[in-house]
């Protein structure tokens, strides 16, 4: 496994990343595309650029004395189109989950930064590589991925303790093996009852799990209204099969055992062993590839857990930009907002199940990505909205729109619904204006413009060979 930059442990905290993203969401994203108050909820994801600033004025030392953090891409969304609505032309967004929107928006940002590099602008994040026509990321930069909720799919299959009336309590493996060890960071030990929310309160009662409800077409709906509540220590389940989890005891105070798992609506891909569907902790098989659920019409989009795992091996830049890069662009860390969470489930989903991946091209490899959770709740998460509306009329539903934002000078915002810019009619679907700026066809056009801005004699060998 490839290790990231050594300084990532001291450069930022999970709460700093979450707070920066929430502030950006509130100040830079428009009202259009955001959830309707007290009726809709959504999810948020972003990519944050972290940069070391060296103090060259202090005796010539280049020791980093300052760290700057900047959101460079952001996405919201909970929806995914069915396979019958997919188009070969690449002009529709198949997957509008927040994580995917944020990554596509990040690709727009990378395109723009390569434009700057090709124009020899000093403020680009790229510098010339060792090979002709190729670029590499500046060594003083890294990227952190933030999501307000655990990714759908494998990372959302989280153990549930028998005493739980509240969100799943994430417990570290060390704490599980030795209950006397205190929970670290911002996690609350269960014995600290005064800091925990009153389990008899109306809000907490609404947060109780409804075991028969899968997460459905909305993103992570298996968690119901449970994105909030105290963040107790998390359960370790990384090295256990679902069958073993059903009989685990002694993993938490009072001899509590794992009696169930939080459900994911993501379905196993054809060819996988499949879920047992048995009651309790054996309901799901962990570590499998899954596709996102659809309402009637099955989707072909892989779960966000699977996509994050892929990005951790192949990078976030995509195949087109790899023609111009010396190395892939990897995420150094992943931060999750306040929600049901398991550190071991996240590690299993993003890195653990990729350990046997081999025969990769030079420069690619499974990255040792840092994974942390913040204690800060997203204001438009399902749980936060549910708590505000209390017993308000009507049903709480996921927001149908998705927002894309990129740190680019021209048209940084893009609001879509059902895969097309919001407001697009059936008659206008074939118009250029009916394409999202992060659709495949528009990203391809951006790549063509990037190549046209570079003299052919400066193209990398891979593109010159294709041209010949």
Structural account:
- The chain has helices at 8-11, 14-28, 98-118, 173-177, 202-206, 242-245, 304-314, 318-322, 343-350, 382-389, 440-452, 461-467, and strands at residues 2-3, 40-41, 44-54, 64-76, 78-80, 95-97, 126-128, 135-137, 141-147, 159-161, 258-261, 267-268, 290-291, 333-336, 367-368, 370-373, 397-398, 401-406, 413-417, 420-421.
- With 468 residues, it is of the alpha+beta class.
- The two termini are 38 Å apart.
- Mean pLDDT is 78; it is low at 165-254.
Provide the fold topology.
Layout: E1 2-3, H1 8-11, H2 14-28, E2 40-41, E3 44-54, E4 64-76, E5 78-80, E6 95-97, H3 98-118, E7 126-128, E8 135-137, E9 141-147, E10 159-161, H4 173-177, H5 202-206, H6 242-245, E11 258-261, E12 267-268, E13 290-291, H7 304-314, H8 318-322, E14 333-336, H9 343-350, E15 367-368, E16 370-373, H10 382-389, E17 397-398, E18 401-406, E19 413-417, E20 420-421, H11 440-452, H12 461-467
Parallel strand pairs: 1-15, 2-17, 9-14, 14-16
Antiparallel strand pairs: 3-4, 3-9, 4-18, 5-6, 7-8, 10-11, 12-13, 18-19, 19-20
Helix pairs in contact: 3-11
List its traits.
single chain, eight-stranded mixed sheet, alpha+beta, two-stranded parallel ribbon
Q: Identify the overall geometry.
A: globular
Overall average pLDDT = 78
Indicate the structural class. alpha+beta
Proportion of helical residues: 10-25%
- Poorly predicted sequence stretches spanning 5 or more consecutive residues: 165-254
How large is the share of residues in beta strands? 15-25%
Number of strands: 20
Distance between the termini: 38 Å
Query: Order of strands across the widest beta sheet?
Result: 16-14-9-3-4-18-19-20
